[in-house]
Amino acid sequence: MTTGSPDYRDIGLEFPPGFLFGSATAAYQIEGAAHEDGRGPSIWDTFSHTPGRVVGGDTGDRADDHYHRLESDLNLMERLGLEAYRFSVSWSRIQPDGKGAVNSRGLAFYSRLVDGLRKRGIRPIATLYHWDLPQALEDAGGWTSRDTAQRFGDYAAIMGEALGDRVGTWTTLNEPWCSAYLGYGSGAHAPGIASGRAALTAVHHLNLAHGIGTQALRSVLPADAECSVTLNFHVLRPGDDQAEDAMRRIDALANRSFTGPMLTGAYPADLLADTASVTDWSFVQPGDLDIVNQPIDFLGVNYYSTAMVREWNGRGPRQRADGHKGTAGSPWPGSDFVEFVEQPGPYTDMGWNIAPEGFEELLVSLSEQFPDLPLMVTENGAAFVDEVRDGVVDDADRIDYLQRHLTAVHRALSRGVDIRGYQVWSLLDNFEWAYGFSKRFGIVHVDYDTLERTIKNSGHWYSELVRSRRIPAGPRNER
């Protein structure tokens, strides 16, 4: 039974020893140095340089210039007291064409990053793929090509061999839902393709890449190394009293298209039936699901908001309030009659509703579905409009969001859910994909003209949480 404040603004809740507090970033969003030291182009270089694809015409060419500001950013992490740092590796910085020779200068950058983290007592968590596929592989079919999964295995082995003596925690893919359905279904993300069949083909090849990549990592890493995958889960709400089938259908596409093969070794039968008019799934070859279904040490969980669905009655315009940037294409193949309904606020600057109870519900549900699989919160955070005034960023809304969602994590822990840590998204304001620099998620403010970093009040609040291991009071506590 859940106890405490009904609005999830509990204070003083203590987290257990060993619970890992950190922060997360992604390579293309912060690194910059897009054309330096042998890095090849990725699909996000191409996409962001295509007119009309990204708000403001922004690109990640410079981003936060983390590549050149590594030491000062590491010092910033140390100042915040982070216990862990989840970063992603730019595949095209390691293999400019996604295959073949290794770029030693790219490897050297990540080696310096890992050494710098360890020197400061911060645990490195390496993510191999956070959406930035080498453009040369996309030119050969990208995630619609089975060969890309094989190339990913080669890349995973390279990274495991290079850093496995110093990095003990690895994640194969971050949010393959976005890579497949936004990249190849709606076209809102790179490479900008709008095809239901391409999206489902990409789903399988990303699943296959996870399996091949995990096998490759296991073959080169020490026996005590941890392997994982990170999924962004859609927590669904009914838009009316007849929404059951719509919820089931979206759950299959959003969640079970990955947890099914990865964690149980099979695609859900209802998913295959729902999408039969889109594809016959002939790209799934004998033995694939045995490869995909690899043992992992924990499941990475990303959560931001909930979604509300119902069947569209065909009258009037269909609502598409699914929380993702609108395009002509759809990220929901085979579900054209499902309507995403706008939910009650409050909202973040992304237009996403704030629902900490959905977070608790998700963590408990995953524990019930996969009782022997530990969880780690690998992303959770919020975008708000932030300003530096007299050297201070008073982001009370973000503190409130974090307090409420960390309360949800603690409540799930108290209900017996095995959660190993929490990585706040994000360390720095950064390039927010198709939204460019128009959205700020960081607990550290970045001035995009000067690149000056300013720790926001949320960063100081989070630092106090890490230090004390207790949830501090937030700006809206009344007690």
Tell me about this structure.
By secondary structure, this protein is of the alpha/beta class. It has one domain (20-468): Alpha-Beta Barrel (TIM Barrel), CATH 3.20.20. The protein is built from 15 helices and 13 strands. It has helices at 27-30, 43-48, 70-80, 91-94, 104-119, 135-139, 146-163, 176-186, 196-220, 244-264, 269-274, 288-292, 356-369, 396-414, 457-468, and strands at residues 20-24, 84-88, 123-129, 169-174, 226-232, 235-238, 298-302, 306-311, 338-341, 375-379, 419-425, 444-446, 453-455. The strands form three sheets. It has an eight-stranded parallel barrel, surrounded by seven helices. Strands 6-8-9 form a three-stranded mixed beta sheet. The protein has a two-stranded antiparallel ribbon with strand order 12-13. Strand 10 (375-379), helix 14 (396-414) and strand 11 form a beta-alpha-beta unit. The longest helix has 25 residues, at 196-220. The radius of gyration is 21 Å and the shape is globular. Belongs to the glycosyl hydrolase 1 family. The active site is at 175 (proton donor), 379 (nucleophile). It comes from Homoserinimonas hongtaonis. Keywords: Carbohydrate metabolism, Cellulose degradation, Glycosidase, Hydrolase, Polysaccharide degradation.
What is this structure's SSE topology?
Layout: E1 20-24, H1 27-30, H2 43-48, H3 70-80, E2 84-88, H4 91-94, H5 104-119, E3 123-129, H6 135-139, H7 146-163, E4 169-174, H8 176-186, H9 196-220, E5 226-232, E6 235-238, H10 244-264, H11 269-274, H12 288-292, E7 298-302, E8 306-311, E9 338-341, H13 356-369, E10 375-379, H14 396-414, E11 419-425, E12 444-446, E13 453-455, H15 457-468
Parallel strand pairs: 1-2, 1-11, 2-3, 3-4, 4-5, 5-7, 6-8, 7-10, 10-11
Antiparallel strand pairs: 8-9, 12-13
Helix pairs in contact: 7-9, 8-9, 9-10, 13-14, 14-15
